[in-house]
Write a structure and sequence with these properties.
This protein has about 220 residues and is α+β, with helices and mostly antiparallel strands. The chain is built from 9 helices and 4 strands. The chain has 2 domains: about 45 residues; about 180 residues, no CATH class.
Length: about 220
């Protein structure tokens, strides 16, 4: 059913683009509509409750789909997530490295995990705790236990049937710098990780110590 809906949406976009010719604004509007239909077909519908907004946000982050995650957030935080969508290749390389190491039974050391976290667009292992709702507002905490914790607020926004819950999170100078760094360097970091992945698969890296040392060297070089 979902594939059918997405297929119909794609046909509409293609037909519409052909009809409107070179009108870039109209093409952009149709593409945005297609993206919305595609998201909703995948279950990313507007959030009717604070918990739904938070859970779908987390699911989108786990899917490494930062553009979809942004639809559950209010600006300016949503804008930072949309920027991160450009770094999806880096996120995939991080996940691929972890999978390659697991298949070779190479454990990630604490230092290896730290290096990966430093270049991760958004860690997928966070939890949502302390959800409290009162009227059209709510609060919650996003946390990786012992590593970081971020309080967020939620508000029910929009009018009529368009009302949905949105997450409001602080957009600090550090966050902006972190996002800009990853967007600027994501290909360099991804290339470094891909090199390590090839060495794991080729059995050039066989131990957790080898992995830690090689990863650190490659990421330091990529940072230059």
């Amino acid at each position: 059913m979902r594939q059918w809906v997405v297929g119909i949406a794609l046909i509409v976009v293609v037909a519409g683009a052909a009809y409107i010719g070179l009108n870039a604004d109209r093409r952009a509007s149709l593409f945005a509509l297609f993206q919305q239909v595609k998201r909703e077909a995948a279950g990313y519908t507007p959030a009717k409750t604070p918990d739904e907004a938070l859970q779908k946000f987390r699911n989108a982050i786990k899917d490494r789909d930062y553009d979809t995650a942004a639809t559950y957030c209010a600006n300016p935080y949503a804008e930072q997530l949309r920027k991160l969508d450009k770094a999806k290749r880096l996120a995939k390389s991080i996940d691929d490295l972890k999978s390659a190491a697991e298949r070779r039974d190479i454990r990630l050391t604490e230092r290896t995990t730290t290096w990966l976290r430093q270049v991760d667009p958004f860690p997928t292992t966070f939890e949502i705790v302390d959800i409290k709702e009162q009227g059209d507002q709510a609060t919650a905490v996003l946390t990786e236990k012992g590593i970081w914790s971020a309080p967020v607020s939620l508000k029910r926004e929009g009018t009529g049937n368009e009302k949905s819950w949105k997450i409001h999170a602080a957009t600090t100078p550090w966050l902006r710098l972190h996002v800009d760094r990853l967007v600027d360097k994501h290909n360099d970091f991804a290339n470094a990780l891909d090199k390590v992945i090839d060495q794991i698969r080729g059995k050039e890296i066989m131990t957790k110590g080898d992995l830690e040392a090689k990863l650190e060297n490659e990421l330091r070089d990529a940072e230059k």
